[in-house]
Amino acid sequence: MTDFFGSLSKIKYEGPESDNPLAFHHYNPDEIVMGKSLKEHLRFAIAYWHSFAWEGGDPFGGRTFDRPWFGDEMSKAKLKADVAFELFDLLGAPYFCFHDVDVRPEGKNFAESLSNLNEIVDYFEEKMESSETKLLWGTANMFSNRRFMSGASTNPDPDVFAYAAATVKSCMDATHRLGGQNYVLWGGREGYETLLNTDIGQELDHMGRFLNMVVDYKHKIGFKGTILVEPKPQEPSKHQYDFDAATCIGFLRKYGLEGEVKLNLEQGHAILAGHSFEHEIAVATADNMLGSIDMNRNDYQSGWDTDQFPNNTPEVALAYYHILKSGGFTTGGTNFDAKLRRQSLDAEDLVAGHIGGMDICARGLKAAAAMLEDGGLEAALKERYADWDKDVNKDMLANGTLESISERVLKDDINPEPRSGKQEKLENLVNRFV
């Protein structure tokens, strides 16, 4: 045991009446909702990068956190792992997620970095033997190092493409060894700053080929998890190729990957794309492409990715409404891609941030389940589209031509009047639950 969390003990559920700031007030992992426990529904994961690797900087200032594991030595990487698993156990978190650079020191070359990664994976295996926490997904950081300043799989330099391929292989191997349930690719710099030096068509083809290599390797090693890609519209690149859910789905179809790859959607990225989180989830579920989610929030007065812990129950409820409506998570889950504010320095703050996020998600999911069980929204939706169930309209959609439909409009004197969408009534219905 380390002394980072001091005398803090395992966080317990005490209910909404408790005034204990270090207790769950809404997340009771054993509570049964729609036939499953909240723990099984939500499948919470802790993000290694924000919770343990982030130093508290922002675009205008550097490090504010002073953590005893900061440094490039393997001994500090192992101390970081010790503290991480202590947090997992304190929160009863069923899963965690990591990038390669979060968990191991950077080597002087790829071989040394690979050796460092394999050593820390060995250490993770030891830690996981005595912990209930499993790996939700692993990924490779191919955006922080200067070698990736012009992208990874889309880089104009073939050597960078090769380095990226080797990096992903190493991270897939690590994820497979640790029993990860998914593998995520986020193209933080797969995009462009200016079209003056960019061949979009060639870069997209390279990205598509790269992802096909990933899928081929998944099957070669027998990895049973899901390959996920994560949309984001901008930041750090001016324009990223994985702009939003719809863009990614189109990309996957173009390169024949729609049956192999699903999406990992993030609340903050949805906001940057000009969407709501529920929109992105609904787009993905409509095509059976939702894999997992990164739960956080952005500051609506800032134009960048602030990665705050969620605290808006109505937003979260509507997101989980579409997740539950589509059948819930399979290999995916709720990863807290969220970080403390740079003024929140204490170990207790790290625990409190996750408690609040887990409580908000539990409140949101329970509200979503109640809305589904009530059936009011679904009944209104069915009523709005009910005329499409009539035989004449089914036939029009399946067999109609512009000529035959025009003849019908003239023959039956069709002259439709607008019908109310009843948005206010539906919003009032939602407010009964949130």
TrEMBL record:
InterPro entries: Xyl_isomerase-like_sf, Xylose_isom_bac, Xylose_isomerase. It catalyses: alpha-D-xylose = alpha-D-xylulofuranose. Mg(2+) 2 binds at residues 266, 269, 305, 307. Belongs to the xylose isomerase family. It comes from Cohaesibacter marisflavi. Mg(2+) 1 binds at residues 230, 266, 294, 337. This is Xylose isomerase. Binds 2 magnesium ions per subunit. One of its GO terms (molecular function) is magnesium ion binding. The active site is at residues 99, 102. It is found in: Cytoplasm. Its main location: cytoplasm. It comes from the Bacteria. Its EC number is 5.3.1.5. One of its GO terms (cellular component) is cytoplasm. It is an enzyme of class 5 (isomerase). Keywords: Carbohydrate metabolism, Cytoplasm, Isomerase, Magnesium, Metal-binding, Xylose metabolism.
